[in-house]
Amino acid sequence: MTNIFRLVLFSSILISCSAKKDKIHELQRLNGEWTTIFHGETISEKWELQGDTIWVGNTSLLRDGQSFMTEEMNIQLKDGKFVFCTSVKDQNEGLEVKFTLKEHSGNRLVFENLKHDFPQLITYDLKNDKELNAYISGTNQGEKIRMDFNYKRVK
């Protein structure tokens, strides 16, 4: 009887790992390098899958031929839900801020953290393989704000 129990347990673990692996691959279209011009400056956002469990990204500001990293990000599965984690230099005392996936419909991802000062929402809308519209939005000091980043794929 214990051999059957072990076999069932082992099979369950394999199925669970496979399901987690398949789910993280749902974000495959984020993979690559994206750029946009925002207030006259070039911003680059890069995403890549590390292993089979986490998407790692960073945002850089390109100025005078030099790249300055401004944000480190990752998207991972926690308790069956996607969580977007970000740390921005000189914000939130360098601590990571987490946003939980609120909406995933088609090529649209909306992450939410209503307790964060700004933004409360981070949205990615993958228009096609070459266009990624992203925006951050929420309320800051009573004012509704939305900042759009219309990226084009570089790689």
Concise description?
The chain is mainly β. Helices cover 15% and strands 59% of the residues.
Question: What this model shows, in words?
Answer:
By secondary structure, this protein is mainly β. It has a single domain (2-153), classed as Lipocalin (Beta Barrel), CATH 2.40.128.20. Helices cover 15% and strands 59% of the residues. It is built from one helix and ten strands; from the N terminus they run αββββββββββ. It has one helix at 2-24; strands at 32-38, 41-50, 54-63, 66-78, 81-88, 97-105, 108-112, 121-128, 131-140, 143-153. Strands 1-2-3-4-5-6-7-8-9-10 form a ten-stranded antiparallel beta barrel. The chain starts with a helix and ends with a strand.
Under CATH, the topology can be stated as: Lipocalin
**Poorly predicted spans:** 1-20
| Largest sheet descriptor | 10 strands, antiparallel, barrel
In the CATH scheme, the class would be: Mainly Beta
Counted by DSSP, the helix tally is 1
Average predicted local confidence, pLDDT: 87
Second rung of CATH, namely the architecture:
Beta Barrel
- Spatially, the strands of the biggest sheet line up as 1-2-3-4-5-6-7-8-9-10
Terminal CA distance reads 54 Å
Structure summary, number of beta strands: 10
Q: Kindly report the name of the CATH homologous superfamily.
A: Calycin beta-barrel core domain
Number of domains: 1
Helix content: 10-25%
Looking at how many chains there are and whether they match, the oligomeric state comes to single chain
Structural class assignment: mainly beta
